[in-house]
Input
Amino acid sequence: MALVLLHRVTMFLILLAAQVLILNHVHLLDVAMPLLYIYFAITFRRGFPRWIILLSCFFMGLIVDMFSSTPGLAAGTMTLVGFIQPFLVERTAPRDSAEDMEISVATMGFGGFAFLSGVITTLYCLVFFTLEAFSFFEWLVWLERIIASSLLTWILILAIESVRSK
Output
């Protein structure tokens, strides 16, 4: 368990540094924004204590908010994702999998992991950009940001996971 926690803390710090130092400054066509720190919430093991998932997702979002000038947006949305992740993992995990299964391409298969990460990423972007816009006067821009950011983030997550699983 101590090794798993050390791995989670290392992942937390790496993803946080990448988001704050690099990815917060990337805006493709002023529409797509990579939100790679969602990967932290996706990869919690099956059966991990839910209160730890919620707290760590909240703190990840809170620290991203501090460096991004988005007061409460990432913290609230990451907490929602941390709440929903265990339920989605239970629905998408193979039936004969272990109770402490690691969430990865190696254990879930590419299709299962791609589906799980796609749903969580799309949900995150939908809630995040809806709260950020807080109106539907420019609904086309809102929809473009959700779709483009979801796709960009999902592609980055699958790329990292393909490198990590080898």
